[in-house]
Design brief:
single chain, about 120 residues, alpha+beta, Thiol Ester Dehydrase, Chain A, 2 helices, about 15% helix, ApeI-like, 3-hydroxyacyl-ACP dehydratase
Length: about 120
């Protein structure tokens, strides 16, 4: 849905069986930034969550939806002009027909989003 338009996957690494690290580029020219916000673009929180959902789905090879967000913290705003490339680190464990997931979106020492929840 957002892949290829709002963000592009630059690289994918699998440091462990249930762990995937993606490097993605935000498309700072995407029309969503014209309204969010003119002159001061910020990646919307809902788009960060959609990105995680898409990347978890790609990692497990199934289309998944968020079933539960146990803990979600938006720690810093992402300005695509300042941080056009970020790392998305995802850890997941299959359980009871779904995937318990931890995810972090960050750039170097700056963490933008921490998520703990379940996808099904």
């Amino acid at each position: 849905m957002l892949a290829g338009k709002f963000y592009t996957i630059v690289s994918r690494q699998q440091p462990a069986e249930n762990s995937i690290h993606y490097t993605i580029d935000w498309n700072g020219a995407h029309p969503i930034f014209e309204g969010h916000f003119p002159g001061q673009p910020v990646v919307p929180g809902v788009c960060m969550m959609q990105t995680i959902q898409e990347l978890v789905s790609a990692a497990v090879g199934k289309k998944l939806l968020v079933e539960k967000a146990s803990n979600m913290k938006f720690l810093n705003m992402i300005d695509p002009r300042v941080s056009p490339q970020v790392t998305v680190e995802i850890g997941f464990t299959e359980e009871e027909g779904g995937y318990k997931t931890n995810a972090v979106i960050k750039h170097e020492a700056t963490t933008f989003l921490k998520f703990q929840g379940r996808f099904k």
